[in-house]
Amino acid sequence: MLSGRLHLLCAVTALAALLVVLQAQTTPLFPVACELNVLIILDRSDSVKGGFNKSRKFVTDVSEELQIGPSKHRMAMIVYSGLSYRREVFNWNFAKTNEEFVRVTNNLRAIGGTTNTKKALEVGLELLSQRNQTIPTLVLVVTDGRRVIIYCEHRGEDNASLVTQTTVAGTSSWSDCRSADDPKGPGQQMQQLYNTWVFAAATGEPEKVDTRELIDITGNINHIVMHRGRELATDITKRLLREAQDKCRTTTTTTTTTTTTTTTNPITGCELDLVLVIDFSTTTDPISGFYKDLSKRLVSSLKIGPHYTQVAVVTFATVGRTRVRFNLKKFKTQEEVLRAINGLESKGGTTAIGEGIRLGTTMASEEEGARPGIATKVMVVFTDGWSNKGPDPSQMAKKAVSEGFEVFTVAYTAKVKNAVTTNNETLKEVSQDGAHSFTDNDYQKLIDRIRQRNLPCL
Ligand SMILES: *[C@@H]1O[C@H](CO)[C@@H](O)[C@H](O)[C@H]1NC(C)=O
Ligand SMILES: *[C@@H]1O[C@H](CO)[C@@H](O)[C@H](O)[C@H]1NC(C)=O
Ligand SMILES: *[C@@H]1O[C@H](CO)[C@@H](O)[C@H](O)[C@H]1NC(C)=O
Ligand SMILES: *[C@@H]1O[C@H](CO)[C@@H](O)[C@H](O)[C@H]1NC(C)=O
User: Fold this and answer.
1) Which of 88, 233, 412, 442 could link 79 by a cystine bridge, Cβ 3.0 to 4.6 Å?
2) Distance (Å, rounded) from C-alpha 359 to C-alpha 197?
């Protein structure tokens, strides 16, 4: 199974292909260890509007793969922009938990202006000198990847006149045309530190990224993570981290012979906690059968199991009639889940979408079988969008998103006797954005998207 999985990754991205090669040479692309120092160097200049928010989201998303704390993944962070702006430096172990890390990071705000990566790396070197050297270190420079505009001067052909020009870093053929804050020096120093891996992630559009600067920082093109096709930089980084820790687990079990527990949970990378929230109120009575069919289609295309997709179903009607039909840990096979969905019956009532989403969100706890930090969380709300009872659907949806769910809506639009038209306002508010709102017509696209998570294991 593993080789098949590697094979698939290989086909997916060149980066992954390199990973395989590097693994064969026993030089891991990522540090393989259960304990790590992780230094985040985060560019807070907002060269593209919203660029910083993207970078910040990247950092918090990636942190889900870590177990932050003084005995596991020890974090430090530098948030920087131009020279004249205040830099924020968070020392080692500033966050004792993942929650604390996310809270601190989410409080960071963008500052416009220029970027001085060189200075940030110099501060990084200082921080790194205080790291715990007995464990490996991962440095991750995160930027929206903007091109640095630099000012160049060089002699004209007559060797007398001075030609000046502003240019985009990385595009000039003049070797002397480098920005004053060329990060190459401190970058190289960092790369040479014992047991240290330097990575850079660009969260902006790949074609706008100044690759040369990032190569200067990392010293290795394979240490640059960018969006590739439909795969986001976040996904790639998360996968690398996950695989590194996967190996670390195997290493621990094979070398620590004293460990009696051989039941280590291997991370497959296909973990998905899927919560289906289905409208069973009267307004949708004629189509609750279709919602069931759509749910079954989705479940049938996924790999179900404790190491893959786990499914929970919440049905909603009136507030009092909204209930968890089964939680994430109830069923372990696809047949069981399909049978359970088949057996659902609509009793009708008023409509309380918000309550359905609220209850769906409670599935995120370990008691319900969720795998926080390991599984991706997806909620699919099947509804026509009409709500007349209970908490505000859009607020509940926002809360679900803030707890890590990716929230989709699916409306049934085909003509059905007695069915009402869809309330597109609410559908739009509940799904995170237009790209998260589907109907029976484009449902296959949603399936394909959710299925991505299981692909490596199918
Ligand atoms: C970035 O996020 C902050 C709060 O987290 C928000 O106030 C701001 O509007 C966002 N900026 C953009 C451009 O989206
Ligand atoms: C460094 O990490 C090792 C391994 O976890 C630990 O045993 C040691 O106490 C740490 N050293 C310091 C100074 O924190
Ligand atoms: C151009 O000027 C530089 C320094 O000013 C000098 O070293 C070089 O020899 C000159 N080259 C020519 C072709 O005159
Ligand atoms: C609501 O969305 C559906 C599906 O996209 C579409 O068919 C319908 O025309 C929309 N209704 C309104 C009133 O815009």
Assistant:
1) 88
2) 42
